[in-house]
User: Fold these one by one.
Assistant:
Number 1:
Amino acid sequence: MPKFTLDGNEIEFKPGETIIEAAKKVGVDIPHFCWHPSLSVSGNCRVCLVEIEKMPKLAIACSTTASEGMVVHSQSEKTLSARNAVMEFLLINHPLDCPICDEAGECKLQDYAYQHSKGESRFTEEKVHKDKRVPLGPNVMFDGERCISCSRCIRFADEITKTGELTFVQRGDRVTIVTFPGKEFDNAYSLNVTDICPVGALTNRDFRFKARVWDMSATKTICSGCARGCNIEVWVRNNEILRLTPSQNDAVNSFWMCDYGRLETFKQVHSNERINGVYMKREGQDVKVSWDEAYANAASELKHLNKDQIAVIASASSTCEDNFMLAKFAKSVLSTKHVDYIPHVVPGSGDDLLIREDKSPNAFGTELAGVHPAAGGLNRDAILDGVKKGTIKALIVVDEDLAAMSPEMETALAKLDVLIAVSTHHNRTTALANIIFPSATYAEKNGTWVNFQGRIQRIRPAVTTLEADRTLDNLAQSRLDKFGTEYDRWGRSVKLDARPVWKIFAGLSTAFGNKMKYTTAEDVLIDMGKSIDAFKKLDYEKIGEQGVQLELSAKVKA
Amino acid sequence: MAEKKRLKDLTVWQKAYIPEIAKGLALTLKTMFKPKFTMEYPEVKFLPPSSYRGRPVLVEEAGGEERCVACGLCARVCPALAIEVQAAETEREKERYPERFEINMLRCIFCGFCEEVCPEEAIVMSKDYEMVFNNREDAIYGKDKLLVSVSQLQDRINFLRSHK
Ligand code: SF4
Ligand code: SF4
Ligand code: SF4
Ligand code: SF4
């Protein structure tokens, strides 16, 4: 590979690579606002100017291709003074009110102002005033004064979503961003511009002013919105999710996520409908009972029945670990053959960028984990039919609101001898259940999901339940989590009594006299690897931050 | 082992005891006729100078609005984690305001960092040192107790400005 010299070190580059790209690969971050790895080069912010020997003037590192033997200085006196000058220009008309701006704490302009500028303004004239708080669309708010005209948002709309709603108007210091006449900035991915906008000019209308970034903890996990499995970060303060942001994974979602995933998938974690504690129906009323009592009760009710009359419906939103335990419990403890899950595919809802038609995050993993009818068992439709006909007398259903499917189904469910609902939320099915086990949501447990590509990725808990502890269970902690006590209002977070599905099935199994020796979700995964080829020799460390492509046999792929 | 020597052996005079007592009593007698130092609190109140750091309060503008823009810097700098601010959006020019602003007076150590960091001169140390509560919940002061009109705080604000 050819080489060039950057700040005295020889670094390798691929022909055609720009200086900024080559430097990034070896961990040298040349300051930049307008350059973004997945957008075209615009070269308008000028902050990436570097000194190149034998070149008459400084050149911008984002559009200068590296060449053999080039000698580049990114820290020389000339470079630094140019950087200072660019920063001073950018700050001439930029308001100096970071305390009000929502980007403060994660703003490139703020960071670079600390690192590369004089710390004081020589500009005494009146700053240019532009429109503030302009809604560009239903989700994105624009502040003209904070914009540094880097054009990242315009290029995003042109190149990534190819919807092209945004443009610059005016010239010089009057330049600003608008949507084309009669257009709204309303596409399925619009909120990504709030992440790539280097300043606080574009903000998320859902999150604006809700919290300071330094008061939240961030947990890397996976979006639950569809089978894509976008890598995301969950931002939590006081045990409450306040926003989701995408995190880079080139094999899955690049830098992006869709607005649906960002806005609609986390609010349910804190909905009032969440089930808190185990309930049993007594004289038509749901009564709170202890876990052990409910396990024992479920076991004694199910033991009476013929195993052909029992069916289990799993959820494609549960983790592989959850579903493996479910399948194991159904097939080896209950000895029923009737196990299946219900897919949630919305034809025509997908697109070429990220959004998939399959709205479950783990349908692939659910099947791999063994959730399918055993030989001679009933499949999903046959199970539901059996419920209606009365041949199925007991049903265990995980996170699926079957009663909402049809009034006929609702009456049929009410007639069952035993209906055990494992559910995150109260719904029409739990209203009919004899026993309700509260399950933890994706934001409250460890586990793995397999996306539509067959890539296994980890989900991590960001919100604590009653049985978990931020410190002991290694959850991400904010400053407030570390020092809060029960006497601080901000220390009094809501913790629900809910457990991951795999633990609930392990508990049921124990009540049947089959003790399962797993203490963590990882134990379950490692055990899965022993019996299921696709999961062979996997553990959480191997799956890591970016996930692993499963090696699937041709049969599974088909 | 060498015999331990006392640091200070008493002299004969001191051992005699009586003269030392007399000396002490003489001091008491002398002080009795000097002007009184003690303040008869609470009948007499102590009026602190403007450099005094009493409980932190929020500055309320003449129109009844708080100055605070809920930036959260005071909450961030507070070494005792006494402050909690919840920002919200407003139509007013300042864009954001504190929907909730609470200081836990049991946590506060009266260091004045919040006052120092505030970009809006919106939180200042008052002269109030009388804080009474008989449970932990009451020790958390909300906006109702924290807002004090700017006219009452002018003394402190002038002091701060003169030391900028
Ligand atoms: S709004 Fe943000 S991303 Fe768009 S041009 Fe301005 S600074 Fe750049
Ligand atoms: S594309 Fe799917 S996985 Fe990605 S953010 Fe949207 S809903 Fe979530
Ligand atoms: S005076 Fe010090 S301890 Fe008290 S609220 Fe202000 S910063 Fe916190
Ligand atoms: S530092 Fe000042 S403006 Fe910011 S939240 Fe505290 S009191 Fe309000």
Number 2:
Amino acid sequence: MSTRLPGSERTPMTRFLDTRLGTWTGFAAAALVLFGLAPLVLSGFRLGLLAQFLCYAIVAVGIGLAWGRGGMLTLGQGVFFGMGAYLMAMHLKMADARFEGGPGAVPDFMELAGIRELPAYWAPFASPVFTVAAILVLPTAFAVLLGLAVFKRRVKGAYFAILSQALAGAFAILLIGQQSLGGFNGLSRFRYFFGFTLADPANQRMLYFIAAAVLLAVVAVSLQLRRSRYGELLVAVRDAEERVRFLGYDAANVKVVAYAAAALFAAVAGAVFVPIVGIISPASIGIVPSIMFLLGVAIGGRASLVGPVVGALVVAWAQTALSEQFPSAWTYAQGLLFILVIALLPGGLASAAALTKRFRTKPTPVEAAA
Amino acid sequence: MSAVLTCKNIEVSFDGFKAVDGVDLELARGEVHFLIGPNGAGKTTLVDAVTGLAPYAGSVVKDGEELRGKKVHHIARKGIGRTFQTAAVFEHLTVAQNLDIAAGAGRSALSLLRRRRRLPAVVVDTMDRIGLRDAADTPAGTLAHGQKQWLEIGMLLVGDADVLLLDEPIAGMGHDERDTTGRLLHDIAADRAVAVVEHDMDFMRAFADRVTVLHAGAVLASGSVDEVAADPRVQEVYLGTAKEAADAARA
Ligand SMILES: Nc1ncnc2c1ncn2[C@@H]1O[C@H](COP(=O)(O)OP(=O)(O)OP(=O)(O)O)[C@@H](O)[C@H]1O
Ligand SMILES: [Mg+2]
């Protein structure tokens, strides 16, 4: 079936997963692996790594929606990931300072930098409620405004990609210049997470569970969006934006929704990432990390639901395993991989199963008719 | 005759070149109105102007409302639907999904976020009308050429357009398909205004209620098929040459 989207070829497996029973089975299996198997077989250190990778996977689900279904090449998700991460990090630093130095204390890194007075914009982040609200609202609102400005002007394709990437670069540079946000070093050395001490392995495990739960939730939201009428409309906009306008829709609004959802996912991922990894700096949110996010999605299959998750995990794992042994080679390997996937397997790993099937077996008459 | 759509003195220029140069056009409910003219006469550009794609001078009024300056999707919501010279359906979606999207421009955000449980009646009826009921679950990209064009017309019907601007709807169709399309056009024109851009003169003679001939961006003649055919200027610039060419091609 040549007209199927890359990454959404019909195999008996995907057809089963499309049914209600299949959906529940899929989620149950994923939950079993994430909540049962992984904590059982992985050491605390490895579970922490997996938790970090799950954060990348959360970002990837959003990219799968915006890029795979909506055709928006979101090359700058580091911006939203970074917003979520810094907002969370600011709260953690504030909480630590309050806990250890009393109400008037400034975070430790400010003291070192000679900042004695707390900058006014830091003050509200003492409140956990404000922080969580800010993480959910600010990056999403920024994405809506940016999306409206860009999509109403019909900026798309490569122009949109370059714009998002430039934004990620500019955001990283902006942060490097902010001494009150830790500058080049970013924010690190967090001690407490909403009152729980981060040094405790039990709490670290809890953070892993939070990341896993968020990932499942984000996949569920993405699935609902894909199966809804909106999901069909999004594909229509991706394939023939002009045509959708002539049917009376404002295509820009359709795109903004997917773009904002992807931004929200990335922001939440960033917020969960910070207590897990213990540091956020401009280096983890600029152009290179943004491309990394995209790479995983491309490899896994951008149009499929689970492909981006698998791709993100594989790329993150490969980076950890390989970059330690061959730090310089990894950068090239990454670029090469990207080119190979785009050139040879545009549907990503998700389409590989269907591809090998097509090469190996002739379809049975029943399948051919289906 | 009560005009649904009135275009007055439409002018469209591309870098100083006037592709449409002072065209007046009235479309009335109940009529299949053919727009003919040689290649480059400005037919498609005129449709582009009316539907908000090409900026123009002049005025387009539908049901008493000026449409000039409105955005493409606003004009579509006013009940003006168009098809394109090259069929533009959503190839990766099924026939039913194509129609469901076309029927849904007025849907609330909440209903969009839900899954479609069953097809709206208007979608099912329209599939019958355009003969694609059996192809409901077929991806539109795999349809035959003619079927795609029917699907496009169907998409305008479910969207409740009452002015249809069809750009070469029978291009590439076989004889029987043309007949079917012609009858379909008359059927849907009962309570709508239908404008058809077409090169095929036999088709025009068989199905036109009214004809407007464009040449070099201007209206050369307008009236019934016989009136237009009798116009010597039309014979000179268009009908004669086109007919000869067509006859030669057929021979
Ligand atoms: N975007 C554009 N920029 C510049 N010139 C254009 C543009 N679109 C159309 N034209 C020119 O305007 C004139 C009218 O073109 P138009 O497509 O409206 O003709 P038409 O009557 O639809 O012809 P056909 O029968 O070949 O479809 C042509 O000379 C064409 O080259
Ligand atoms: Mg044309």
